[in-house]
Write a structure and sequence with these properties.
5-stranded parallel β-sheet; Rossmann fold; 14 helices; alpha/beta; 2 domains
Length: 290
């Protein structure tokens, strides 16, 4: 999770730590240049309070925190002059061209934020697990299931067949049939689906690998998953125009996973592509006459 997201969520922060976090959020571009003495004075706190907050954010101390926070702030600033609200990216005052630009900016913003979060996560290990799995299942509902179907379609190109576990409402039957040689992907932004929690418990019992892609690293599902990718997007559960930001991020993450899977067996996949291309475009499976 990005530092900024942790400062926004303030989970398990004390009152003093919340005051420091609020100051860092409101003054991020100047705070990254402050010494610990200056930050303590500006927030009416102490050195020890700042150090405790840094350690709560998984840093060894203030120096390491300031370096990583500064890198994050400058990377985001270099990409965007204006941050687009992922919940209400436009208003009734915007014309069609303004809306089009804001939606383009939101797409870029969501993808870049997801990319920054992937930097320290185990994309290679997850791609390897998927490539080595006997079968792959994906559990997803609503908009996430639509995004999952695009991933399913891409995998056919490398002779991998992803089973949509929710298709025909058969998630429980599919879960019951998984073995230790299979891998299950769970695609849920909230990470709060009780039935999926029970399915994960069962899969852990039988030894099947589970991959969670979510925006909630503190969910019960996140605790149970064998592997996980966390992509937070400041998106609210209900108060929003649509699931723009989360699904853009999910699509990017799945595209990245597919690409890493492809690259792990690149020459074999290229050879397969050439063979199938000849068969489909020139051979017996050619659909159209010219």
């Amino acid at each position: 999770m990005l530092i900024e997201d942790q400062l926004i969520r303030q989970e398990a922060f004390t009152t003093t730590e919340k005051r420091i976090a609020d100051y860092l959020k409101a003054n991020r571009e100047t705070a990254v240049y402050m010494t610990i003495e200056e930050l303590a004075k500006a927030t009416y706190t102490s050195h020890s309070a700042i150090i405790r907050l840094c350690k709560k954010l998984s840093f060894s101390g203030f120096r390491e925190f300031r370096f990583e926070f500064g890198r994050e702030v400058h990377q985001m600033k270099a990409q965007f002059n204006q941050i687009i609200d992922p919940n209400f990216p436009f208003t009734d005052k915007d014309d069609s061209q303004s809306i089009a630009k804001k939606m383009a900016d939101l797409s870029i913003q969501s993808i870049k934020k997801a990319q920054l979060q992937l930097e320290k996560q185990s994309v290679d290990a997850i791609a390897t697990a998927l490539n080595q799995a006997n079968r792959m299942f994906i559990f997803a509902k609503g908009d996430s299931q639509i995004t999952a179907r695009k991933f399913q379609n891409k995998l056919i190109k490398i002779n991998k067949f992803l089973i949509l576990a929710e298709e025909y409402s058969d998630s429980s039957w599919n879960a019951a049939n998984l073995t230790e040689k299979d891998c299950a992907i769970f695609l849920t932004y909230s990470g709060r689906i009780h039935h999926y929690e029970k399915i994960m418990m069962h899969l852990n019992h039988v030894g099947a690998k589970t991959v969670l892609i979510t925006g909630n690293e503190h969910s019960e599902m996140a605790k149970q998953a064998t592997m996980k990718l966390i992509v937070t997007q400041d998106e609210l559960d209900f108060a929003k125009v649509a699931t723009f930001s989360s699904q853009i991020a999910f699509d990017y993450v799945l595209n990245t996973l597919y690409s890493v899977m492809y690259a792990q067996n690149y020459q074999e996949n290229i050879q397969n592509l050439k063979q199938k291309q000849d068969l489909i475009q020139k051979g017996l499976l050619k659909e159209y006459r010219h």
